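Dear Dr. V.,

Thank you for agreeing to look over these. As mentioned in my earlier message, I'm a first-year student in the group and I'm still getting used to reading structure tokens, so any feedback on how I've presented them would be very welcome. I ran two proteins. I've put each sequence directly above its structure. The first is here:
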Amino acid sequence: MGCHFLHNMEEQLQEGIIEPAPREPTGAVIHYIPYHPIIHHNTELTKLRIVYDCSARQTLKEPCLSDLLEIGPSLQPLIFDILLKNRMHKFCLTGDVKKAFLQIKINSQDRDAQRLSWYTVLQ
């Protein structure tokens, strides 16, 4: 598992999903997001994926990162509406957006609030 985990993190680094944090914080809030691997033994394509837990709390009295983020309108249509609209047409095309929720850009002043701690052995 360790090798797959390191490969997954390196891939996210190369794709710009994660980036090295500066030594000195640039934002007002510094928060490290816990994460853990999910292993799928019965799948061919994605054996391992990393889950970032923005609902984790340091203590019961403190808010989690999800509590502090600004909530905007839902950008995903309701599944019932999609099914109804698809019945009106002869053909329906579907697709899968690769790692859709990992492709969101974060303003530079907010990045320190969404850090994660990870290390790799430099070669």
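The second protein is here, in the same arrangement:
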Amino acid sequence: MKVLVDTSIWSLALRRHGSQLNKNELINLDELKELINESRAIIIGPIRQEILSGISSHDQFIALKEKLSYFSDIVITTNDYELAAELFNTCRRKGVQGSHIDFLICALSINQEFSIYTLDKDFMRYMNYCNIKLHDPRAYKK
């Protein structure tokens, strides 16, 4: 199964360094490396935009952009956007707030049968109303 890697995981991998990481962060980095090696890690344009936004140094921006160029964006269809809006509305009626990008990630997970790899706890709340699958690192399953 392909795994849609959320901004929180990419940021951990691309912006933090080994000596600053705790055990759980190292586990998540190892898992991302495995997913990349297995050609299972995927990205979408809005996540790419989030990762690249807010970088003050042009040189750092170019370097990060080059690292991410290895990954092609998954195509987002009208059906994905419509389902994202439906999921947003359903969750909102239930008192659960989230970003439009989060619900687009949920819609892609459902429509294209991807699991979502994230550190964002909001996705646990979305699971109550959206039929999404979250990816657990293999080290947590041992």
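From my reading of the second output: The CA atoms of residues 26 and 50 lie 22 Å apart. Helices lie at 7-15, 23-37, 45-52, 58-68, 78-93, 100-112, 122-126, 138-141. Does that match how you would interpret it?

Kind regards,
E.
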